[in-house]
Amino acid sequence: MTPFRSDNSAKQTAPQTILRRGVWAAVVFHLLFALAVLLVPHTPRFQALVDDLFETAGGLLAAALCFLGCRRQGSHSDGTGQTRSAREIWLPRVFGASLTCYAIGQVVYASQDLVLHKVSTSFSAYDLWYLVSYPLLLAGILLLPAQPLPLSSRPRIALDALMSMAALVTFSWYFLLGPILVQKHVSASAKFVALSYPMLDLISVFCLLLLGQHAMPRGLRRTVSVVSVGLVMTVASDTMTCYQSLHGLPLGRNLLVLGWSLGYCAVALAVSAVRLFPEVCRHKADIGPRPAVLWQSLLPYAFLPAVATLVLCLRHSGSDPRLALGVYAGASVLVVLVLLRQIMAIFENRDLNARLAETYQDSLQNADRMRLLNDQLTATQGRLHDNLMALTVANERLERLADTDAVSGLLNHRGMTAALDDAQASAQRESTPFALLFLDIDHFKAFNDSLGHMAGDAALREVGLTLRGALPSSGTAGRWGGEEFLALLPGADMEHALGMAERVRASIAARVFSIAGGLHLTCSVGVAALPRHARNWTSLVDAADRAMYEAKRGGRDRVCAATPAGEEDQAAGSPFSPDREPALTRAA
């Protein structure tokens, strides 16, 4: 451990280091075995010596690899502080016991071959140890953690496994089991031993087929795959050994020893990985339904043409009738299982189609409900849009009513104040002038007193129409209060404002009002411009107001320009002061 690595980091990397050392040990061992096969003289004696020594060493190495890191972690702790389950505790022990029995059997076999120079062909001590290792190996396979199969999937999975096993048993009967049983001049114990190995191998394959169908964490599935590969290698080596000894073929033990050693070492390393990394078995988040793989679904059916080919070959060969009978029986069982599997597939498809039809009807109903909800939502959106438009129109109308004088139809005092604020800000921003006309109806108080307020309102309404018609489109007119009106002329200088004031005065004087059979009214107009007469609009209104009173004192029905700002204007308010109150309305 480097001085910069913490103790926790060392604990986390120690299992990886231990497992990596085990892998390297297995690789180096088998490389040495390959070199020994190439370098040792090719004589039966030396070849037997090399095979026995390395097969024995391979069994011992596999047994040792099963217990990698046991002293570091202890028997009940997984190295992370969590207590191991009973399955996690017994899994390496059972596999280790199986590989230990195999190693002991190999030691006994090597002793008889190398020391006594005699290997028994009947039941012997090494057969006992070999055969004891198989049940322990099967128990270890069953202890591998996996999720229970769903009840609906168990019959199908069982039939698939039985179909594969029926084909394998048929071939095993023809090539191994049948020939062993029909042998003559062979003791019952020798037949028992010879039959035990292939039968136990078939049981191991059946357990692996069932285990491969279970759902399990992704990391554990890799481990199970390694175990499966190792067991397939040992089963293949057992099958080749049995076939060669049965038919008297010369034994090429180098390849067989390599298969046994590699297979058992792979199993041991996989079991060590499960024990060193127990979290692999506990990750439930990545456990899901096992995805259907096409080749695994088709594998049981792939044996059918192979068995059919074997049956055809038997019909054209002179094989033992007992072997042929077993093959026919196995083929018949396979056909029955295939038919049952197809019947089950028909029922499964029927149920699936029923569920699909039900789901389709549900989707149609959901689509109708969604369509109805969508129509309701569209109608609601339409109503909301109409309400929004009505609300917008109402708000605009309220804004107009808030800024509009009900009598004259022009802007009221509030509206004109806002218009003056905007005009002053624009003039300051763009350095442009604007002018203001202050109108007052002449003798309006006497007119109002003699004809009444209704007639006065009618007269004010017609004055507003006349004023609005006389101004340009850029001008703004409003009722300031009583009979007083303001006309705002943006961008107009004093000369242009005086001309526009004269036009307004003449228009009002020329109009025949509809009150009392037709009357004429006149007005007095005061004109002021900013910045010539004031620095802010409040001062500008006062200047125009004073100019309007000058017009009244001059005889009414005339236009009068304001005098330039003087001391009186300077005292009236500071430049651009928004706090100065506009001129109050006054009666003529």
Q: Can you give me a brief rundown of this structure?
A:
The chain is mainly alpha-helical and 588 residues long.
SSE topology sketch:
Elements: H1 7-39, H2 44-65, H3 70-73, H4 86-114, H5 125-143, H6 154-181, H7 188-211, H8 218-247, H9 253-276, H10 279-282, H11 294-315, H12 321-403, H13 413-430, E1 434-441, H14 444-451, H15 453-470, E2 476-481, E3 484-490, H16 494-510, E4 523-530, H17 537-553, E5 559-561, H18 567-572
Parallel strand pairs: 4-5
Antiparallel strand pairs: 1-3, 1-4, 2-3
Helix pairs in contact: 1-2, 1-9, 2-4, 2-9, 4-5, 4-9, 5-7, 6-7, 6-8, 6-11, 6-12, 7-8, 8-9, 11-12, 14-15, 15-16
Structural write-up:
A hairpin with a 2-residue loop joins strand 2 and strand 3 (484-490). The protein starts with 6 loop residues before the first helix and ends in a 16-residue tail after the last helix. The protein has 588 residues and is mainly alpha-helical. Among the domains are: 1-146 and 273-282, no CATH class; 413-572, Alpha-Beta Plaits, CATH 3.30.70. Helix 4 runs antiparallel to helix 9, helix 7 packs antiparallel against helix 8 (218-247) and helix 15 crosses helix 16 (494-510). The chain contains 18 helices and five strands. Helix content is 69%, strand content 5%. The protein has a five-stranded mixed beta sheet with strand order 2-3-1-4-5, sandwiched between helices.
